[in-house]
Design a protein that fits this description.
The protein is of the alpha/beta class and 224 residues long. It has 9 helices and 6 strands, in the order ααβαβαβαββαβααα. Helices cover 45% and strands 13% of the residues. α3 runs parallel beside α7. The two termini are 15 Å apart.
Length: 224
């Protein structure tokens, strides 16, 4: 049904727009996902979403234990509407809930830390399986829950006096390194055909005016 509906909805979009959607989908991934634990600054949260979208990371997981995740529209530049954002905010320990959910979907939990005992980011083996990269709150970093549950730890190279990068800079540096390694590795990091179709349909619905009416007409014609 999705294929036929996508083909039908394509008539109501510019051909170049459809082509852009297809090109972006070809570079989208769920092999790597970003997890943000308790960010409280809207500027940072929004910059991270924009960075994830630019690098083709389709899913972002948001943990809200003490702080609500707020998007600053002028900074996010609408990037959040193209992403799948999963929030964990209904339990006392949402970090544990998120980690259990990610592990049940075969993600390796990779925590970021400035601790010099941990291997450098460039040493991360991207071929071992899907990656959930967790970043902690701006002031204190990852929580003890994450620290105790992580499968691996990585640190970003630093050569100055300051203890850590800004969170949005950290995400950008990590994504550039990991995405490049994924693309060069030969592993299949792409979306499945089913995932691509679902996402294409979702993006079309965001882009076409009166799309509900148009879909209703499609269903009527399909039943004739």
């Amino acid at each position: 049904m999705n294929t036929s509906l996508i083909e039908y909805l394509s008539q109501f979009m510019l051909e170049d727009r459809v082509k852009v959607f297809q090109e972006v989908l070809a570079m989208r991934t769920r092999y790597l996902t970003v997890v943000l634990e308790d960010l409280y600054q809207a500027q940072n949260a929004s910059a991270v979403l924009r960075t994830c979208e630019c690098f083709g990371v389709q899913e972002v997981h948001i943990i809200e234990n003490k702080n609500q995740f707020v998007v600053h529209k002028d900074i996010s530049m609408g990037s959040n509407k193209w992403l799948n954002i999963i929030k964990y905010n209904e339990k006392k320990n949402n970090s544990l809930l998120a980690i259990k959910s990610l592990k049940s979907n075969n993600y390796r939990i990779i925590a970021t830390s400035p601790d010099t005992r941990y291997p450098l980011l460039q040493e991360l083996d991207v071929t071992k399986g899907k990656i959930a990269l967790i970043f902690g709150t701006e002031l204190s970093g990852i929580s003890e829950t994450v620290r105790n549950s992580a499968d691996e730890f990585v640190r970003i190279p630093m050569y100055g006096f300051t203890e850590s990068y800004n969170i949005s800079v950290s995400v950008a540096l990590c994504l550039q390194m990991i995405i490049n390694k994924m693309h060069e590795s030969g592993i299949d990091w792409h979306l499945s055909d089913e995932e691509s179709s679902e996402l294409m349909l979702h993006w079309m619905r965001l882009s076409i005016k009166k799309v509900s009416f148009i879909e209703k007409q499609f269903r009527i014609k399909s039943q004739e």
